[in-house]
Records
---
Amino acid sequence: MPKQSANEIAVRIESLLKRNRLSVTDSRRKILQLFLEHTGAMAHGDIEKGAGEKFDRVTVYRTLQTFVDKGIIHIIPTADNSIRYALCKDDCGEGHHHDHHIHFVCNHCNKTYCLDDVVTPDIKLPRGYSAGHVEVVVEGICKNCQ
Amino acid sequence: MPKQSANEIAVRIESLLKRNRLSVTDSRRKILQLFLEHTGAMAHGDIEKGAGEKFDRVTVYRTLQTFVDKGIIHIIPTADNSIRYALCKDDCGEGHHHDHHIHFVCNHCNKTYCLDDVVTPDIKLPRGYSAGHVEVVVEGICKNCQ
DNA sequence: GTAACTGCAAAATATTTGCATCCTT
DNA sequence: AAGGATGCAAATATTTTGCAGTTAC
């Protein structure tokens, strides 16, 4: 991925918001910026802190909820009641997430990654069950912690 | 599965606790009973209510934590911050869970099932990542809701 | 009898809601 | 100007901790 100028990033953020019919506000810009800068997924707390203590916790809750609803970010479930959020690929939209990649949680650095190149497998279910979305979370050691 | 008498169940519960070096107390007995009676996984709230308003919320927290530590139950992550718990197979023990089955959440009845016969797939990770536990949660319509 | 477990109170956290004000369009 | 978004206060809900009393072994 080529390094982007600050300006390119700003444009990208703005277009992402406009495409989703959201007004372009400071908090939304900053939270999206965080997601773009950050490798891996972020928990609510990361976002609150990462944004430079600038805005209210309530705004973070509302902004994340809005982004999930619009398909801008998606939720990665974890076993410890601390869900994490990550950017969706561009083909997600309101009401329809299309994320078919798996997620990876490093046991060492505790980061969560979207492995966009690893597609969720087909799961053969017992008779009578029909599958919708498949969520895969692999836990292990990431490439930076080997 | 043959229907078990109340007595058989009581024996089973007691042996499960003793095998894990836990003292046999009322709350533990009742919570395990709930798990055995209940098809599918339970959230914290289900357990609190299900047990007949009998014991403290704190006891439920502590009991569930103990059971997870001992490998008696396992956690099923969800995307909505409401983790669920389900009984492990008998070969799990303290410090080592061996649950390789997938989980299924029904979008209609909202129950969560352990599909013990469906084994988690092998996931081919990018170079540099090494896999430990793989968690798969499939969302769809269960056999009772078709 | 001793260690382990429970229940209560209270603290610490996390999440949601209402409303007045401010910002984007 | 109008609708949407934010920030603050406060209401709820959730989870954790300390401790004294009770129970299992």
---
Amino acid sequence: MASRPEDFVSRVLEVVESIPEGKVMSYGDVAAAIGSRAARGVGQVMAYYGGDVPWWRVVRASGHPAADHEARALEYFRAESTPLRWSAGGVFRVDLANARWTP
DNA sequence: TGGGTGACTAAGT
DNA sequence: CACTTAGCCACCC
């Protein structure tokens, strides 16, 4: 294959691993950090290679964690003391205003 | 090489 | 404030 997955995949993993505890980044921010706008591409890479990186530190622009993985991320957020914003019904989302990390 | 899918985003209702 | 629609880019077959 002429393409080198490491160019995009490795960079995504590199950025995600570089996120400190208690901080989070949106998919779009990660994509922008590597010079791309493929927020969905980041999600694809995370879904496949995310098993070796703190995927829970990567959330959507709305502050919600990866779809269908909120409960899993919540345990990490509580352990990392990540700023969370709770809504009625037990629904929570990351307070990007305070947890958004920019390199 | 081309088509379909998706751990997304922004804007509109 | 929450849900819906359309658009985008990268990955997989």
---
Amino acid sequence: MIKLSKIYFHIDVNNAFLSWEAVKRLKEGEQIDLRTIPSAVAGDPKNRTGIILAKSKPAKDMGVKTGEPIFAAMKKCPNLLCVPPNHSYYEAESKKLRKLLEDFSDEIEPYSIDECFISYIPLLGSVMDVANSIKDRIFNELGFTVNIGISDTKYLAKVASDFEKPNKIHTLYTSEIKEKFWPLPIENMFLLGGKTAPKLKAIGIDTVGKLANTDINILKVHLKSQGEDLYNYAWGKDIDERHQRKETPKSVGHSKTSSYDLTNLEEIYSFILDVVQDTCNRLRKENMKANTITISLKTSNFKVYSSSATLDFPTNGTSEIYKDCKNIFNKMYKGEPLRLIGVSLSNLELDETTQLNLFENFSEKEHKLDKTVDNILNKFGNNHLITRGSLIHSDKNSKNNI
DNA sequence: TCTGGGGTCCTAGGACCC
DNA sequence: TCTGGGGTCCTAGGACCC
């Protein structure tokens, strides 16, 4: 009996944020399709965090790059139309896509907001017929195009969906790697990034094929376990469990860039509380508690450093976590002007205990306060009007204290 | 004209215990 | 008293992804 190997499709929305924005605007009666003019989804240009999140093909052709500041993009492309992002709308579109894919597969593994892996069901038709149906239905029902990569491994399916775009289907079976994968520059490899490529080039490896035909021990010397992984990928081995998404998050974090450099300690504390509030809100939404708190700082000259501490008892209470954050911060802070502050909660576990732990200094009142703040945040988002004066001891914020 | 935000995993050194 | 080695946890930093 012949053992049929499993086949995976990697579905990748073309220019996701921009496509979704374009479709939304057309539906709302706008005449211009953002995809046909130089346009971009970008942050607030007045803010120093205003960068390009997604761009149209015409914008790309004029040199606009994802991640660059808006003013830099405008210099290359003065008629660039920038629209603000709308994350909750993109989240909804992503859900619609996954819902549609349920008609084609019983195994859907979301990889990111605009990508997922699905397994192919032979009963539905030939590989190409099914892929074409998926592509057509997404376009007809949801209005945007996707690339589909097909292979017997997820890794290669992911590489294949990145071939010529947009609106294309490509295969890259393990049996095809020598002709379709090995001639490519190493930059085309998934999980090989901008730091690793120069290291490989320095030892004369510039194509996937050269990587595949290098002694694995040499790769290990230069890149440790990553070298072994990349060697295996070059030969068509699949991504292991390590790189697969789990249902429960391993960490929940939040960070914010200030509109100006922070130097005043009271302001920094208030900023930390703001970030902690958002992070704890999300942690409680996940119904989890954290054992470890990490604070990261980015200074005005872009130096990044972090410090963390593991607690005696897990918690998701805002005031507790805020107090710990303040302690960690006070120990690590060297007084530089700060550009960004981040708080990440990790070492998570399910919050099953509703009864209070005697050792936890956590009152019923605090619980209620957290709930109230969560409700407001969930309803209105964090518009910076909510702060807890009692925690900050600052007069500046007293007007809007709860 | 400087460079977002949210994640995951890996590495290396130190502490601690047996 | 001195010495060694293995296992595990913690912490800081870095690479990579979208």
---
Amino acid sequence: MSVEHTLLAVLSIWPSTGYNIKSEFEHKAAGLYWGMSYGSIYPKLKKLEEDGFIYTLEQEEEGRKKKLYELTPEGWEEFENWLKAPPSYPVIKDELLMKMSTWHEDMDYDDLISHLLKRKEQTEDLLEFVKEWPKNGYSYISKLGILTIRFIEMRLETELRWIEESLVILKNDDLPDGQDPYGNTEKLLERRRRAIGEKKENDQ
Amino acid sequence: MSVEHTLLAVLSIWPSTGYNIKSEFEHKAAGLYWGMSYGSIYPKLKKLEEDGFIYTLEQEEEGRKKKLYELTPEGWEEFENWLKAPPSYPVIKDELLMKMSTWHEDMDYDDLISHLLKRKEQTEDLLEFVKEWPKNGYSYISKLGILTIRFIEMRLETELRWIEESLVILKNDDLPDGQDPYGNTEKLLERRRRAIGEKKENDQ
DNA sequence: TTCCGCATGTAATCTGTTACATGATTAC
DNA sequence: GTAATCATGTAACAGATTACATGCGGAA
């Protein structure tokens, strides 16, 4: 998903300025969607204009100098071709999961528990925002937009359910069995202990 | 989440070569986690070695020249400090959602439906893989790894549920109401029609 | 009159990918 | 013997971020 197509998509909603697009993403990117910096937005807008996909609307003397960009016929065409092209499969890239799955038994679970508690709070906040969003009275959300928001809600609720379950399991030290056909858990701890031991010796 | 820390995390499981790490991610990155290219792995391994976080194990004359990397005491320390640091909140960056929420009523829903059907298939495949993974008899998965896999499963199942629901809604043309306080849906379609109309005129 | 928010823009930098080069070993 | 896989590495490139520069308008 290129920045260019994202910009076309945003401009399809209504004509906007570069600054405007950035603030829009800033707002919703409270965890939703993702950010774009001025350093990529302005040059790309310029490029899109050069390529004939967007043009600047007359700013009707609003005092401030600003460039309101709008799609050209070619811009609409390009945008809709992009819409029709099959979307790529999203990657799950979650630092919490990476940390959790490489956590080891010689490390205090309390730190992991506080990661989970923090995640719980953040997800609750985001869920609250997402639930209010289509009811706030001023944001434009299409019918299909409502469907995607429904997905985000379901996902966040699932995440909260999982966090709750995991916290109970961790606090009761009731972890499920792993799959460890070659006794790697013990090897790992042994490798680590030896390394740490060597370090202590050297430090003395 | 830097590549460096990801490499330390992978090496904490067991000593590996650069090639090895790449294949590992290739395999699981059937959608899970994410990829790394040789162009970033090898230079980073070199850097980590220079920084004293990893070192090369004797390769015990396995014939092939290869570098088996292992964590140093400093490597373990760095890795565990990273584990303890609060993970950043993941961003939802899903091209399907972006396309769906900017889809408009003058575009055929059939294309959107085929995007959803394709996603359904891909997610089913991934779910199947994730369910088999901890039972395949050879992969090492720690107890906490099982918990994270449980999360992925729940998430994928939620996604499938949402896709089913959405397909029914789309096929019955039974979409929920959007939020459109300023009649933007009509404005959008009008802007587009005018642009497309102009193009047709010019083309004649 | 000073500060903050609106608004645009660029240069330096960072990070990562692609594509290629190289060569050994194993499977057919 | 030759194709595929294992294995390491780099140079050129692409993409995006950070940090800075600039300036207007309105509010305190």
